[in-house]
Structure formats: structure tokens, C-alpha cells
């Protein structure tokens, strides 16, 4: 720290987003990264997904690692690299094991599997050059209309969520010599909300007694398990902060509740500061200053990194912030980098990437959890497992035209039952096309509807598109029995109360598709206990 200027110390508090691509050195985007890393001296990078034309693009492992190495060589101090690896590296990186969503782990309820997933994620992360995992999600999803947490949560029971959070942290910490940083989110709890903080301000309305017995329980378990970081949510919590400001900027919530009451001494990090629900209230430097005043150590993805740094420097010049306050956070950040071994070796070993991430045991673990998570929520006529799959019909309702959802499921069904009729539909189809598709489903002994709906940023809900709702209602009104399978949000089942059979996978991963095929054909049981309440509204 004695070798750093005050401005360099402030820059260490900032982590900027990147997409894991490896552009040429003459590209403007590459030159901007060099400026921020080399001249501005930001403290770290955060891996994001590139979204183009509604399609999510994951980074390629070697391009990702090569870019990280290039940036590490440009940086005066080693960069810390973070990522939302909630489903292992597969959430952001291609060609890695497709671990299911957290709610599938809640359904499987195998703490050893959760512990091993934490360890696998740590191994994948370090192999790729990622040191800080923004997982696990400690939110208790007890609101069926939550549009952004949903299957990212282990479930609605705070005791169950706490147990899996603890197991994940234990596994991640035990995995590697240098380890990774593990972070729980979104403090003080994002589960009982109906607003996506990417687009608006979410609000937690419970009183303090409810917060203690529900939202805060998993965070307390994480702190007892020595979690490295706590990510704050851009949440309004009137029971804790009467001013209505987001938890990220609340001294009462960060320094008061998190630090003093719960005893957390690690890294407090903001959720992404470029979210619309946040930026509409607070701009540039003011948001950064308020976060640091509240007790935050790391500013994640400010909408304008330069403005954030300037705002903090201006606050230091005016006396609003003190040098000692900046020292506190910088000391934590540099200590974390030291514990991670980054001052000894900051570069990724490119030759070891495949050996570490292409591990058969990771794929086996992902498939094991997906299969253990299957729940038969209803089976009124004993329709599942299918008695005669060759006479049944399969309908896949994909999330969008570019999606690959359901294609693995169709392949695996046809490999076992070549004569099974199937339809793959996307919500952009016109009503007439969907009506024609419905007319093709005559003579089926039963119809399996596999509906894919996942929580995602900026969607605003986790419901079936209107066109699909009408299509499903048409099929439900016919005498052919319907087996409705919710891949992703299990709350979809509330909207199809008249379906003769209902199955939930709690994840949209391809491992869940494979598991569902096996379950429907009777190769494995589908008797997991749902980790959330699924009842008609």
C-alpha cells in the first residue's frame, strides 16, 4: 500500500465487466481495457455473458484465459477476476460441465453433492483464471412471482437453504491449495420480491423478526462458515432502512447489520452497479461514495468506472471520505490477492485448462444431481412413467427461436423411441401456426409438454409467453391426457392445474433434459420432494 498513490488505491476498489473474448490489440475495446487496467489501475475484472440478438454467448475457455493473461501482464498489481459461477463455470463458459440450477440441489437435497459442486467450481475457476466466485445464492425464494431469483435459490425453507450454502462454501474452500473466494448474495435477501433489480427497485416488506427467522438465516450460516464475501442487493428494506435507499448504500444495513450485528469482517461487494434499478436513483460518483460510506469494499461494474473513481477522489478532497476508510478496504483486497497466491503467480497455465475442466467426474456429478432432483408433483392417472412411449407425443416449448432448449431431450427420446412424434415450438410462431401444430397432435395416447422458462435479467417475469398459454389451454381442453413438465421454474405448474400429470426438474440445463427423459421412461425414479410450494394461485 505504501507504493500506491491514493488514486491507485481508490482504483483497486473497482472491478469492471468483460466478456471473455480475446480481441486483437488494435481493437478499440481492447485498448479501452488496457487503459482501465494499466493506466487507471482498476482492481479486477468480472466475467459477463455477451448477449446478441437475444442469444446468450458464453466465453470460450482458452480465449478467456488468454485475455486474462494479457490483462494481468498489463496491470501493475495482480487483478482479481470474478464470475457468477452459480452453476459452475457453465454459467459463463462454454465446454464445461452443465451443473443444474441451485433449486435442483434443494430438491435432490444431497449436501455431499452440493459440497462436491463447490469443490468442482473452485477447480474450474482457478484453471480458467477466475479467483472470486459470486456464489452461492443465499436468497430464500418464498415468492412464486420472483422474476430473477427463482431456481437460482436452493428453495423456500431457510434451514434447507442455509445447509446447502454452508456445504457449498466448505467444498469450495477445501478444493485447492490457493483456493477461491466465495460470496453469498444478495444481502439481506432477495427471495421475497417480485421485481427484477436489473430494471426496478425490489422491496422486502417483512419486519425485523421475519428477516431474522427467514432471509438472514442463510447469511448467518455463511458467515459462520467463514465465507469470504457478501454481495449486497439493490433492495429497499424498510424494516432496516427507513430512508428507502438500496441496501447497497445503507450504513445501517452494511456497517450496522452485516458488520456489527452479524460480525462479518470479510469483503462486502455491491451487486452490479450498472443495473437500471440502481442507476435510475443514483449516478456515477455519488453512488460509489455512498456505497463506501455504507461499508462496501468493492464496487462491482460501475456504469462509468472513471466517474466512480473521480467521485471518490472528490469526496476524499472534501473530507466526506477519509484516507483511513479507503485503507481499510484496500488492505482487505490486497490481503485477499495475497491469500490467493496472485503476487507469486497471476497467470493462467493454458496447458492445464483441459486437464482441470474436462473432468468426467464433474459431468457425472451434474447428471447425478439432475436425476435426483426430479419431482412428480401430480400423477392422477398413473401416466408416468409412460406405459407406451411410442404412442405418446412430445411437445417442446422453447424460450426463443435461437434456443437449443429441448433439443437434447428430443434426441434422447428418439434414440430410445424412434417412432415418437415430436414438435419443437418457439414463442415467435403466429397463432395460426400454433393452432396447426395443435391439430397435428391427434391420435396421441398422451402428450408430454416440456416447457422451458428460466429466470433471467431484464425479462421481468418467469411465465409462459401468452402465445404458449393459449396453445397449452387448447391441449388441456381436449380429452388426451397431458403430462406437463416444467423445466426451469416449477411455479409454471400452478398455471396448469388441470394437467393429469405434473413433473418438475428445477433447471433448464441439458443434464435436466437427459434426466427427465430417463424419468419419463421409468429408468430412474422421480420422487424428489419439491423444495418450494407448488400450488394453484
What does this structure look like?
The chain has 537 residues and is an alpha/beta fold. The chain folds into two domains: 348 residues, Glycoside hydrolase, family 3, N-terminal domain (TIM Barrel); 147 residues, Rossmann fold (3-Layer(aba) Sandwich), CATH 3.40.50.1700. 38% of the residues lie in helices and 15% in strands. It contains 19 helices and 19 strands. The chain has an eight-stranded parallel β-sheet. Strands 14-19-18-17-15-16 form a six-stranded mixed β-sheet, with helices on one face. It has a two-stranded antiparallel sheet with strand order 3-4. Helix 6 runs parallel beside helix 8 and helix 11 packs across helix 12. The relative contact order is 0.12.
Task: Return the CATH architecture of the largest domain.
Answer: Alpha-Beta Barrel
Tell me the total number of β-strands.
19
Q: Please give the largest β-sheet.
A: 8 strands, parallel
The percent range for strand residues is: 5-15%
Using the coordinates shown, work out and report the CATH topology of the largest domain: TIM Barrel
Please name the fourth-level CATH homologous superfamily of the largest domain. Answer: Glycoside hydrolase, family 3, N-terminal domain
Return the domain count.
2
Task: Decide which structural class fits the backbone.
Answer: alpha/beta
Strand order of the largest sheet: 12-10-8-7-5-2-1-13
Q: Gap between N and C termini, in Å? A: 57 Å
Low-confidence stretches: none
Mean pLDDT: 94
Rg (C-alpha, Å): 24 Å
Number of helices: 19
Into which percent range does the helicity of residues fall?
25-40%
Overall outline: globular
CATH class of the largest domain: Alpha Beta
Amino acid at each position: 500500500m505504501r507504493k500506491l498513490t491514493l488514486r491507485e488505491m481508490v482504483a483497486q476498489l473497482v472491478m469492471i465487466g468483460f466478456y471473455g473474448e480475446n480481441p486483437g490489440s488494435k481493437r478499440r475495446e481492447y485498448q479501452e481495457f488496457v487503459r482501465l487496467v494499466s493506466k487507471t489501475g482498476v482492481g479486477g475484472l468480472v466475467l459477463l455473458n455477451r448477449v446478441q440478438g437475444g442469444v446468450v454467448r458464453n466465453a470460450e475457455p482458452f480465449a478467456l484465459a488468454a485475455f486474462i493473461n494479457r490483462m494481468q501482464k498489463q496491470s501493475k498489481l495482480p487483478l482479481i477476476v470474478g464470475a457468477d459461477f452459480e452453476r459452475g463455470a457453465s454459467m459463463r463458459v462454454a465446454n464445461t460441465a452443465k451443473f443444474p440450477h441451485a433449486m435442483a440441489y434443494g430438491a435432490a437435497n444431497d449436501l455431499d453433492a452440493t459440497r462436491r459442486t463447490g469443490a468442482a467450481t473452485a477447480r474450474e475457476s482457478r484453471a480458467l483464471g477466475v479467483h472470486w466466485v459470486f456464489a452461492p445464492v443465499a436468497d430464500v425464494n418464498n415468492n412464486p412471482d420472483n422474476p430473477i431469483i427463482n431456481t437460482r435459490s436452493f428453495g423456500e425453507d431457510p434451514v434447507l437453504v442455509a445447509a446447502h450454502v454452508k456445504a457449498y462454501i466448505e467444498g469450495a474452500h477445501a478444493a485447492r491449495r490457493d483456493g477461491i473466494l466465495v460470496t453469498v448474495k444478495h444481502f439481506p435477501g432477495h427471495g421475497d420480491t417480485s421485481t427484477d433489480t436489473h430494471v426496478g427497485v425490489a422491496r422486502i416488506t417483512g419486519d425485523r423478526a421475519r428477516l431474522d427467522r427467514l432471509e438472514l438465516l442463510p447469511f448467518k450460516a455463511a458467515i459462520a462458515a467463514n465465507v469470504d464475501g457478501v454481495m449486497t442487493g439493490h433492495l429497499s428494506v424498510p424494516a432496516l432502512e427507513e430512508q428507502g435507499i438500496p441496501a447497497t448504500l445503507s450504513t445501517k444495513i452494511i456497517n450496522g447489520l452485516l458488520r456489527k450485528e452479524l460480525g462479518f469482517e470479510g469483503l462486502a461487494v455491491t451487486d452490479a452497479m450498472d443495473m437500471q434499478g440502481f442507476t435510475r436513483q443514483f449516478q456515477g460518483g455519488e453512488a460509489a461514495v455512498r456505497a463506501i460510506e455504507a461499508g462496501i469494499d468493492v464496487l462491482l461494474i460501475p456504469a462509468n468506472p472513471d466517474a466512480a473513481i473521480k467521485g471518490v477522489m472528490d469526496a476524499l478532497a472534501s473530507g466526506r471520505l477519509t484516507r483511513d476508510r479507503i485503507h481499510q478496504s484496500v488492505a482487505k483486497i490486497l490481503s485477499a490477492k495475497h491469500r490467493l497466491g496472485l503476487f507469486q503467480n497471476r497467470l493462467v497455465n493454458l496447458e492445464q485448462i483441459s486437464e482441470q475442466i474436462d473432468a468426467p467426474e464433474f459431468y457425472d456429478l451434474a447428471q447425478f444431481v439432475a436425476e435426483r432432483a426430479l419431482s412428480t408433483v401430480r400423477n392422477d392417472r398413473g401416466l408416468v412413467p409412460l406405459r407406451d412411449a411410442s404412442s405418446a407425443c412430445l411437445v417442446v416449448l422453447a424460450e426463443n427461436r435461437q434456443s437449443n432448449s429441448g433439443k437434447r431431450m428430443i434426441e434422447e427420446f428418439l434414440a430410445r423411441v424412434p417412432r415418437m412424434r415430436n414438435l419443437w415450438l418457439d414463442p415467435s410462431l403466429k397463432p395460426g401456426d400454433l393452432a396447426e401444430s395443435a391439430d397435428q397432435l391427434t391420435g396421441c395416447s398422451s402428450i408430454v409438454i416440456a416447457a422451458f422458462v428460466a429466470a433471467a435479467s431484464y425479462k421481468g417475469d418467469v411465465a409462459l409467453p401468452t402465445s404458449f398459454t393459449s396453445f397449452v389451454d387448447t391441449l388441456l381442453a381436449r380429452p388426451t391426457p397431458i403430462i406437463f413438465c416444467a423445466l426451469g421454474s416449477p411455479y409454471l405448474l400452478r398455471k396448469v392445474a388441470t394437467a393429469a400429470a405434473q413433473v418438475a426438474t428445477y433447471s433448464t440445463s441439458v443434464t435436466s433434459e437427459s434426466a427427465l427423459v430417463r424419468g419419463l421412461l421409468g429408468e430412474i425414479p422421480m420422487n424428489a420432494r419439491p423444495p418450494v410450494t407448488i400450488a394453484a394461485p
